[in-house]
Specification:
alpha/beta; 14-stranded mixed sheet; six-stranded mixed sheet; 27% helix
Length: 505
């Protein structure tokens, strides 16, 4: 269901129980809805969904069945998702950047009846979308969707981003997705009919999927995937149309754009919205100074979607809870009312219990306004020699030190470790001296390990899994040793791991 053909009116939320064609595919055949290198109107999209549905049906997918899509951002991913829902099936979204081993583990764990993958290589490095042909293959031993009630299943299954550990399996119904679209409809600054979204977030994760794709189709907003995920490519997508344009992505892209060379006036650039992790100090101010528009922020989870927002940038660091959500802070942790567990399989009571979703994020809540401030991961609070240390505080302070491009601070083996990217000309020893002026000695990391780039999750979040960071540092040490062996340094006493600062005394 769509809003009226003209004006910025908020579209009515779809009624629970509507099938996907009423939820997303209705509208004038000639209405331009997607741009992935070429314009796609609703009539063409409906025809492509019919073709994708025929392919899935030939592979054996039927109502109540299960299908996994492992596709790069593409028109094929969009039509495969909508076709699966139109058949009444459950769709599992797998990020195309997962390794074969990770994919096989997920397939063994979830047992979909059909798997859809690219028919050939689909290189997408720095590309916003790909053009792919697909193959749908029946999987022996695949299981149908579990019935929640007669004729009702979880329509969407996703894996959480896993930035701090193993991914969780999250399941949502079409009614739940419709409720999230209703929350978006009540955000006055979110794009409306006649506007555009340039999407940098992944289509297989919640912000890109619901806030990008599903909202655009539902509300009559043109969704644009840029040809290249570079500053020049993003700005080219912004300026490709005269309509007010909002860019949606992770904070990394705001930093990238804030540092980009001036392309001239950008009258259509209305706003950027970021989510996925805390924004580094100074980035909102640098972005607004660069473009003269707000950097909005959103907070959400795979389990629920959008939870709280500050799309104007005026509340920072506070956020307004999204419509209809009941939020509380329990012993410093944000909890959200959710009567049913969003997880498939055994439920960890640390994640959901007694009708409350435990976000594992530290927060405060203003009793007068209801606004919340997200302070960082609750599990970022550790004890060093009996003294409490907030790793988020140390990470923010380190990130603001001159010479540090980005940083991650973690706790392992009883101590604090920092992994960082240095700017040209900076060195870890000087950074450590500056950090020691900012934080108490017991908060200082044992090591500062300099890397060419910090590892990220498939959604672009900085990875905070200590084992993965440790392996990245080890790989850089091996590479440095190989470079030293190939070109021996004049002074044999020079360390090949010069970015590693010794332990504290």
């Amino acid at each position: 269901m769509n809003a009226a053909p003209s004006g910025p009116a908020t579209p009515a939320a779809p009624a629970p129980g509507h099938r996907v064609d009423a939820l997303l595919l209705a509208g004038d055949d000639h209405e331009h809805c997607l741009t992935l290198g070429r314009a796609v109107d609703r009539g063409s999209l409906r025809a492509l969904v019919e073709q994708a549905g025929a392919q899935l049906a030939r592979a054996g997918l039927a109502e109540g069945g299960t299908v996994a899509l492992r596709l790069p951002p593409s028109l094929a991913l969009v039509t495969g998702l909508l076709a699966g829902w139109r058949l009444g099936a459950q769709v599992l979204l797998l990020d195309h950047r997962l390794t074969r081993i990770e994919v096989d583990r997920a397939l063994d764990r979830l047992a979909p009846q059909v798997l859809v993958e690219p028919a050939g290589p689909a290189g997408t490095a720095l590309r916003g979308y790909a053009e792919v042909e697909t193959v749908a293959v029946a999987r022996p031993g695949g299981r149908p969707a579990e019935q929640l009630s007669p004729g009702r299943i979880h329509a969407l299954v996703q894996l959480s981003s896993g930035s701090t550990g193993p991914s969780k399996v999250v399941a949502r119904t079409l009614q739940d997705l419709a409720a999230e679209l209703d929350r978006y409809s009540r955000l006055p600054q979110f794009p409306r009919r006649g506007e555009r979204i340039v999407l940098l977030s992944s289509l297989v994760h919640v912000l890109g999927l619901v806030g990008g794709l599903l909202w655009s189709l539902h509300a009559g907003v043109e969704l644009v995937l840029p040809e290249r995920l570079t500053a020049a490519g993003i700005l080219a997508a912004v300026t490709a149309g005269p309509q007010p344009t909002t860019v949606i992505g992770v904070p990394f892209y705001a930093e990238l754009l804030a540092a980009a060379a001036a392309p001239g006036p950008l009258p259509s650039f209305a706003r950027m919205i970021v989510a996925g992790e805390l924004v580094r100090p100074g980035v909102p101010e640098a972005f607004t100074a660069r473009y003269g528009i707000p950097l909005g922020t959103m907070y959400g989870m795979t389990e629920l979607g959008v939870i709280a927002t500050d799309l104007t940038g005026r509340l920072r660091p506070a956020l307004d809870p999204a419509h209809g959500l009941d939020l509380r802070v329990d012993q410093g942790e944000l909890h959200i009312k959710q009567p049913d567990s969003p997880y498939l399989g055994e439920v960890d009571p640390a994640c959901w219990s007694d009708g409350w979703l435990h976000t594992r994020d530290a927060a405060t809540k203003d009793p007068a306004t209801g606004q919340v401030v997200i302070l960082g991961r609750r599990d970022s609070q550790v004890s060093i020699g009996g003294l409490k240390v907030d790793l988020t505080e140390v990470e923010r302070t380190l990130s603001a030190v001159d010479g540090v491009a980005e940083a991650v601070v973690v706790f392992e083996a009883g101590g604090i470790e920092a992994y960082l990217v240095l700017e040209d000309g900076a060195n870890a020893a000087a950074v450590r001296e500056d950090l020691a002026l900012e934080v108490a000695a017991y908060k200082l990391p044992r090591h500062l390990r300099a890397l060419p780039a910090l590892p990220r999750t498939a959604t672009g979040k900085l990875l905070r899994d200590p084992a993965a960071l440790r392996e990245a540092a080890a790989a850089e040490t091996r590479a440095a040793q190989a470079r030293a062996a190939a070109e021996p340094a004049p002074d044999a006493r020079v360390s090949v791991n010069a970015g590693d600062v010794p332990d504290l005394d």
